[in-house]
Design goal:
By secondary structure, the chain is α/β, with parallel strands linked by helices. Helix content is 50%, strand content 8%.
Length: 305
């Protein structure tokens, strides 16, 4: 499909005279248009859920999740991947974001990087991408050569390939197992896909990693019990979570966390099952990292000594 025919390249009738509006009217118009993002993402719920299940299954077997993209798409993939270690205590290599043009492209446009169809395969090879991994190719246009090339390479290995675009009937469909395609309509500034398309992309990536991590037992209810306390804010959050789930006061929760190397789930199991940290870790190992199941196992042990 020619670029001029893409939905994301069309002129938005609602913003045809945006340069004549007041600042308040511009903000209101953009807010009104942004509402379309949630509606478009909602229509893709089944595809997003399918992706979550596939990613979680592969990660349980030791596989990894990769995002590739160019420009805004690539930056959002890198952002989502970089937030997984502190939020869910994943290893940096478990969720990887790759952007056309490399790290320089995160802050500076790298001319022509998105047009190099062979570069993505080389970038994936640097990370030893293989058939047990999952690749999400992000291209709001649905036709970015770098992303298409990456999907072709991943598919040749037998990996799961998922496409993301904000245009219907895109070229990505021929190169992946299925596509997530929230069609948000023409942008407020024609062709500026960092706007609604970028917002929809961020929403979907949030769902992919958060849904996957929930499936992997990284949460308990809506508490992020597998977080890595790498700063003062996260240390305080760890104490608050342990305190809330054990009924210990903040001081006692802090002491317990110190005994448990700062591991939130270990501290909770140790408290609730009256177990030393090493036994708490063993219960979590037996429960595949699920705090809920580990607490059940510990409760059964207490009931049947």
């Amino acid at each position: 499909m020619e670029i001029g025919h893409l939905t994301t390249e069309q002129t938005n009738p609602a913003s045809i005279a945006i340069d004549t509006l007041s600042s308040l009217e511009i903000v209101q118009l953009m807010n009104q248009e942004d509402r379309r993002c949630a509606e478009a993402v909602e229509k893709e719920s089944a595809a997003i859920a399918k992706a979550v299940d596939l990613i979680a299954d592969r990660m349980k077997r030791g596989g990894r999740l990769f995002y590739i993209g160019a420009g805004t798409s690539g930056r959002l993939g890198v952002l989502d991947a970089s937030e997984c270690p502190p939020t869910f205590n994943t290893r940096p290599e478990q969720v990887v974001g790759i952007i056309a043009g490399g790290s320089t492209a995160l802050t500076t446009a790298v001319e022509g990087a998105e047009d190099d169809e062979n570069a993505a395969a080389a970038d994936l090879q640097k990370h030893h991408f293989d058939s047990g991994d999952v690749l999400v190719g992000i291209a709001t246009s649905g036709r970015t050569p770098y992303v298409v090339g990456g999907l072709q390479y991943a598919r040749s290995l037998g990996a799961i390939c998922i496409g993301f675009t904000c245009n219907p009937e895109s070229a990505l469909e021929r190169h992946c197992d299925f596509v997530i395609a929230p069609v948000v309509g023409p942008e407020v500034i024609s062709g500026s896909t960092r706007l609604k398309s970028g917002t929809a992309t961020k929403m979907v990536l949030n769902m992919l990693t958060t849904g996957t991590m929930i499936r992997l037992g990284k949460t308990y209810g809506n508490w992020m019990v597998d977080l890595r306390a790498t700063n003062i804010k996260l240390k305080a959050r760890s104490i608050r979570i342990v305190s809330a789930l054990t009924q210990l006061d903040s001081h006692a929760a802090s002491i317990l966390l110190d005994r448990c190397n700062g591991e939130v789930k270990v501290a909770i199991v140790a408290s609730q099952c009256n177990a030393p940290p090493d036994r708490a870790r063993e219960l979590l190992r037996q429960a595949d990292g699920s705090l809920r199941r580990a607490l059940q196992l510990g409760s059964s042990e207490s009931a049947n000594p």
